[in-house]
Automatic annotation (TrEMBL):
Transmembrane segments: 6-27, 34-55, 61-82
Keyword Signal: no
Origin species: Actinomadura decatromicini
GO CC terms in record: plasma membrane
Pfam family, one: MrpF_PhaF
Membrane topology note: Multi-pass membrane protein
Name of this protein: Uncharacterized protein
Localisation: Cell membrane
Single GO MF descriptor: monoatomic ion transmembrane transporter activity
């Protein structure tokens, strides 16, 4: 089985796991939005890594690494802002 054949079902599962995280980010309370942001960042990074493996595009790995770093920093900034408003 090719890399695309094994990575695409996992990619579908990852995108399906994003639905609750996106719902929490869009409709939740501030703490729930923070939890959705923290969960969505690594899920999207893993999905991009699976796309890189499936299609042989190493540029997606760079995007996944930058996204993982920025989502971590973004969640820290949002948590700090949330702690000031409560």
């Amino acid at each position: 089985m090719s890399a695309a054949g094994t990575a695409l079902p996992a990619l579908v599962i990852m995108v399906g796991a994003l639905v609750p995280a996106l719902t929490a980010m869009l409709r939740g309370r501030p703490a729930g939005r923070l939890a959705g942001l923290i969960v969505a960042g690594p899920l999207v990074a893993v999905a991009l890594t699976l796309l890189a493996a499936a299609y042989g595009r190493p540029a997606y790995l760079d995007v996944a690494l930058v996204l993982a770093l920025l989502s971590f920093a973004g969640s820290l900034v949002f948590a700090r802002f949330l702690s000031r408003t409560l």
